[in-house]
Design brief:
The complex is a heterodimer of chains A (about 240) and B (about 600). In chain A, about 40% of the residues lie in helices and about 0% in strands. Chain A contains nine helices and no strands. In chain B, helix 1 (about 15-30) packs parallel to helix 13 (about 560-580). The model of chain B has no long low-confidence stretch (mean pLDDT about 100). The chains are: A mainly alpha (about 240), B alpha/beta (about 600).
Chain lengths: ~240, ~600
């Protein structure tokens, strides 16, 4: 369904165009087909029009570059699905961090703040948006120190290596908990990949198709016996399909 | 400036299950009731609808129906010598907010406690000797028996349209049901939900080992059903979205669907939402409450609402906090063991496992908690504890509650969490894995309690509840034993892979475990060792009745809501048939 040849390689031109596009939205949308676009594979169907470049409203350009590189490493393009950013996961993260949740809604933020122990859960004053900003800054500082470049400029193999080090808590960020950052990054990436497409990720319901989740409306009372130990397959439907 | 309102007959502090039931029973008895709810109104016709509910991100991940922790939370520490810190966002447990409370988003697992659970200290002392109970284990008998409250369990079953298979009908053991349950005066209102593929395999494996499997009882209607309030429920559609959301089919029981429609049309009932009750007004001399103080969150205005009767019907934390703030009852002191308010803070001690069956097709998105199968062979005193080194137990369940894609995926331990390998494992195992749970009891411990936090305050300036809580040696030993037995059943199912997991040594506030907090205002027969009497009437304020799981002396190996609902009816009957005729203490100490 998708090609396996998508380069995840070091591509400074793509990055420069990306940063330019994100910083100058009008110019970017007027002229979407820079080198980055040229690198895009024809997505699920070759008949589909070339996708519009993603526009970010919350993340800064360097943050967006990090997130795109990260979600494409966590969810690489292969025969099972396009890459994370092609599925809209970076846009999802951008919108979520700009949402009420991203701003710390429904969270107790009264002081005093103490570090606490792991059993006491999250004890920072940072909102999710602030947490990701700090985490991305720390992660890029660490990759510059370790690999000589920002995370998004690393070749695919080193991105994998860097994220693995964060996951294992072995990446020693100067002033941030790398494992906690990785866990939040992975969690929001999976949310974006699997949530209803109305939130910007899971474009074309690719993640639901991948695992065989039928989506809405989920009315199965009459199907339990008929599909006992037999696979039930349905074209997934999402919220927008009923709107 | 505080505005003093006209006195009303009764106020409910909180409009979840117990507030709704008490309001209904009191208005039926001619009492004018004001229901006070700090959250939003939640109308099924507006909110429990498709496509809205089929949104895992909004409901399950971002916790749409849960308490707003920016306004109110609790603080937590494992042991009395640690610094408690605020739970900044609830995780291990998820109390609801708004009309319907936690009764909207529950999984609707609907149980009764065992007859022996109600006499737990006596039963253990008789069987194993009083010395066998550790000194730190502050368990107590309930002040009533299973037989006394059975008919109230039955009423709540019928209100909810519970689906299940009776195992003990008036003393007659019925094949296929839970043979360990106490005698039921009547069958379940609805037939069981159909079991899923994996739960059916679990039942066969359990049976082969000599255990007694049965369909999990759930407050989800397996067929259209009209409850005694005249409200018609829909049938369960096996949508796989029960937990943390509402039910658009009106099959899963909630206060909003099963009681409130009749209350809302009753002129004796008035609902006020977005009003935050900050304090019970207590006349210590007269041993009664005179009303409540609340802030209208929509205007910022403060009101005093005088009331002849106050029903405390919020969650465990809110109930305990209100008594401590008002100075009703003696606060518990773990150093001396004296005092009662905040004592015996308990929870559910769960563990479990997962199993993976290559090539099977479970269609896991077709789900309903009632598709699950349970055994009760290792709960309470259903098995002999001689020489085991612990007391208590729990039921086991093989779950089939649905597998929404963000949270409902499992891969065998050691699988990659991301990357191409993760995708392959996810695709391979999503459709053919199943989960198991051991729903362990928590027998109270001297050091597990609630009091007022000395530092942290809620948005209205009140001290937060401080929960000091940890798993005990007894809990861990109990749970290890249960998991060992569970593992035997899983092996007999012949999975491709399986794993079991135990609780970490310390209780931790993430990840989610259960919203089964109990204790703090426990019921008993002696005011020195309990906060409320057998009718849930406060010993120190005769016109104050405290509802919900805060009255549990300890938590047994079952979900609490069945008992919470039964006790609401039990308490309501005492109020309407005894208290209203002759206001005063219903039990003389």
């Amino acid at each position: 369904m998708t090609d396996k040849t998508r380069p995840g390689e070091h591509n400074p031109i793509a990055r420069r165009n990306f940063l330019l596009g994100a910083g100058t939205a009008v110019a970017a949308s007027a002229a979407p087909s820079g080198a980055a676009q040229a690198q895009q594979p024809a997505a699920a169907s070759s008949a589909a029009p070339a996708p519009e470049p993603d526009q970010f409203v919350t993340l800064t350009a360097p943050e967006a570059a990090f997130i795109v590189a990260a979600v494409d490493t966590l969810i690489p393009a292969d025969e099972l699905s396009p890459s994370g950013s092609e599925c809209g996961v970076a846009v999802f993260i951008d919108r979520q961090l700009g949402s009420a949740w991203g701003g710390g809604a429904k969270t107790y933020r009264g002081g005093p703040f103490h570090k606490g122990k792991p059993e006491q859960g999250y004890q920072l004053s940072l909102t999710p948006r602030e947490f990701f900003a700090a985490g991305i800054t720390a992660a890029n500082a660490w990759t510059r120190q370790t690999y000589g470049r920002d995370f998004d400029l690393l070749p695919a193999a080193e991105r994998v290596q860097a994220l693995t080090a964060m996951e294992d808590g072995k990446a020693e960020f100067r002033d941030f908990n790398s494992r906690a950052f990785f866990n939040q990054l992975l969690a929001i990436t999976m949310q974006g990949f699997f949530a209803d497409p109305i939130y910007g990720g899971n474009r074309n319901k690719v993640a639901w198709k991948m695992i065989g989740f039928p989506g809405l409306p989920a009315v199965y009372a009459d199907k339990i016996d008929a599909y006992r130990d037999k696979r039930y397959v349905a074209e997934p439907q999402s919220i927008a399909d009923f709107s | 400036m505080t505005t003093r309102l006209k006195e009303v007959d009764a106020v409910m502090v909180g409009m979840g299950w117990t507030g709704a039931i008490l309001a209904r029973e009191l208005t039926k008895a001619g009492v004018n009731v004001v229901g006070l709810e700090r959250g939003a109104d939640r109308q099924p016709a507006e909110e429990f609808t498709l496509t809205r509910l089929r949104d895992e991100l909004r409901y399950v991940v971002r916790l749409e129906l849960m308490q707003d922790n920016s306004i109110d939370t609790i603080t937590f520490r494992n042991t009395p010598d640690e610094l408690a810190l605020p739970i900044r966002r609830f995780g291990a447990f998820l109390p609801g907010e708004g009309v319907g409370g936690t009764g909207i988003h529950w999984g609707a697992l609907h149980w009764r406690f065992l007859p022996t659970d109600f006499r737990v200290r006596t039963v253990l002392s008789d069987k194993y000797g009083a010395k066998a109970i550790p000194e730190t284990m502050t368990i107590q008998d309930w002040p009533f028996s299973y037989d006394e409250v059975e008919s109230y369990y039955d009423r709540f079953d019928k209100l909810c349209g519970v689906s299940g298979q009776a195992g003990n009908l008036r003393g007659r053991i019925v094949p296929g049901g839970n043979s360990f349950e106490g005698p039921r005066s009547d069958d379940y209102p609805n037939k069981p939900i159909k079991a899923g593929v994996a739960p059916t395999m679990f039942a066969e494996a359990a049976k082969s080992l000599g255990y007694h499997p049965f369909p999990l009882p759930v407050a989800t209607s397996s067929a259209p059903y009209t409850n005694p309030e005249g409200i018609t429920l829909g049938r369960c559609e096996y949508c796989g979205h029960c937990n943390r959301t509402a039910c658009e089919a009106n099959a899963k029981a909630s206060p909003n669907v099963n009681v409130l429609p009749v209350l809302r049309t009753d002129s004796k009932f008035e609902l006020r939402t977005r009003v935050f009750v900050t304090k019970l007004l207590y006349d210590k001399q007269a041993k009664r409450v005179t009303g409540v103080l609340y802030t209208d969150m929509k205007t910022g205005d403060e009101y005093e609402q005088p009331a002849g009767l106050v029903v405390l019907s919020s969650y465990v934390f809110g109930n305990t906090q209100q008594l401590l703030l008002a100075g009703i009852g003696e606060p518990y002191d773990p150093k001396t063991g004296k005092g009662v308010v905040g004592k015996n803070c308990c929870y559910q001690f769960e563990a479990g496992g997962e199993a993976f069956f290559e090539g099977r097709e479970f269609n896991p998105f077709m789900g309903a908690p009632g598709m699950s199968t349970a055994i009760d062979d290792f709960n309470g005193e259903n098995f002999d504890h001689s020489g085991l080194g612990f007391f208590g137990g729990g039921y086991f369940v093989c779950s089939n509650g649905g597998a929404p894609p963000i949270g409902g995926r499992a891969t065998p331990r050691g699988s990659p969490r991301w990357g191409a390998g993760w995708k392959q494992a996810t695709v391979k195992w999503y459709r053919c894995n199943t989960r198991f749970n051991t729903q362990g009891s928590v027998y109270a411990h001297r050091d597990n309690y609630m009091d007022l936090d000395p530092t942290y305050k809620d948005a209205l300036g009140r001290p937060l509840i401080r929960m000091t809580y940890n798993g005990t040696d007894n809990d861990h030993a109990m749970s290890r034993y249960l998991v060992g037995k569970l593992e035997g059943i899983i092996r007999a199912m012949h999975p491709t892979h399986y794993e079991v997991h135990y609780r970490p040594k310390n209780f931790t506030i993430v990840p989610y475990q259960s919203t089964h907090n109990t204790g703090g205002t426990m019921t008993g027969s002696d005011p020195k060792t309990s906060v409320v009497n057998r009718y849930l009437q406060a010993w120190d304020a005769h016109n104050l009745f405290v509802q919900g799981a805060s009255v549990f002396p300890q938590q047994h190996g079952y979900n609490p809501t069945g008992t919470v609902g039964a006790l609401a009816y039990w308490s309501a009957k005492a109020i309407t048939e005894q208290y209203l005729k002759s206001p005063g203490p219903l039990v003389h100490a």
